[in-house]
Predict the 3D structure of the following.
Amino acid sequence: MKLPLPSRIPILYVILSVLALISVVPMYFYSEQVESINRERLITNERLLQNTVTRSLADDIGQAHLRQFDSLTLIGRPCCDRLAATKSPATQRLSIQIQPPTTNSHVGH
């Protein structure tokens, strides 16, 4: 047994569909805006984190190189002292070149 289809749509269905559209459409646009804002913030935060990580790694590498240089200076210091004790001009020039730079010296003299 088939139920006959009504020729007119009941007013209740029209009201429910209009209310559904009124509530869903603004939420869709709002969610799109929120996603866009969050996407921009995430991109900005990711760039800041990349810069922070890069800076941190550069500092760590720089400190490691300074520690290596300091250890080489400690190893080379006795050699420099022995070279400075000799009277040969060539060894004295070599001793001056091997000396670790002071804090007042500038690279590129």
Helices lie at 11-85, 89-98.
